[in-house]
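Two proteins were folded this term; both appear here.
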Amino acid sequence: MKVDMDPGRLAAIGATDARLRCGYRLGDVVDMRPAGDRAGGLGFRMFAFEDAPAVVRSSLHNVGFSDAPDARAVEVRLMRLYMNQVNVTKIPVVVYEVQVDGLAPQLIRSQLPNMNWNGSEDEAYRGYGRALEGANRQLVEKLNLACN
C-alpha cells in the first residue's frame, strides 16, 4: 500500500530545538533523491514524499536562519530521505549535501536505527522525524562551529 506522507506532520516531528548562533540565510533546498518521491517502507506500507524540500525547509524554519541579504547563504541538497527495514529494525535515513557561501559542499547524514514494533504509519512518521531532526541538529552544530 502506497502512503503519501503529510509534509506538515513530518516537519513538526523533525523540528529541532538547536539554534544558530550567528547569521545564516537559508537559500535553495533542492531535491536530489535518485528515487524521486519514493521513500522506502515499513511493513506493508511504501511511503512517498512529493515535496520533500518543503518538508526540510519547514523543519529548519525555527533554527534561526536570517532574512538579511548579507547573511551567509546556506544551500541544502536533499540527497536521501528513506526508510529501510531489516527484520525487526527500522532504519530511517536523511542525507543533506550542504554548501555555505559557495565553499566546498559537506555531507550530513542521520541514520537512527530503532526497533520496529508494529510497522504502523505513526511509527514510520516518528522514525522519519527522528532522522530529520538528527540531520537538522548536525547542520546547526556544523554551522555554529564557524560562528565567532
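Next, the second protein.
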Amino acid sequence: MEAKYNFILADLLWSYSAKEIPPNLLQDFDHNEFIDGFTEEMIRKLATLKVDFISHNTFSTKRYAKLKKLLNKCLDARSLKLQCVKNQDFEGAALHREKERELLSQIENEGFGLSFTQQNEYALYHVDVDTKNRNVRFTVYSNGSECETFLLDIAKRVAECTGKKMGDSSSQLPTT
C-alpha cells in the first residue's frame, strides 16, 4: 500500500478544534481554514469522498495482525511517555517518545498513519486517492466516535455540494 496521502486525515484531525463541525463550515473561512480548503477542493474537483470503517472484529483478523500489534505497542509507548512526563522523568519520556516514533514509522511502512484527537481518541487510517476517477477513500480504525462523526460529516457535505453519492460507509475494508 502507498502511504503518501496519509497526511490528509492527520491534518484534518489536528486542525479540527471544535467539538462539533459548525453547520456553516463551507461559508465560514475564518474557522478551521484547512478543513474548509480541503472540502472546497473536493467540491471544486467534483470528487467523491468515501469512508470505510474497519470494525473491531475485522481488525482482529489475521489480515491486520501485524498492524494491530504495532498499534498496541505504540499506544503502550505513548501511555508510558505521558506517565513519565507526569512523573517528571524526562529521560524516561524521551526513551518512550523515541520508541513511539519508531513504531509510528513502522505503521507508516504498513501503509497507514496514526493520529490522535484532542479528546485522546486515535484514528489508524489509510488514504487512497484515485485521481483519474476523482475518488478519495479513507479507511479508518478508531477507538471512539469523534473521528467517525467528523469524517462522515465532511463526506456528507461534499456529497451534498457535488451532487455525487456519498459512497457506502461500512465497517468492513473492501477487498481489492
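Residues 17-31, 168-176 have pLDDT under 50 and may be disordered. The first helix runs from residue 7 to 15. These notes refer to the second protein only.
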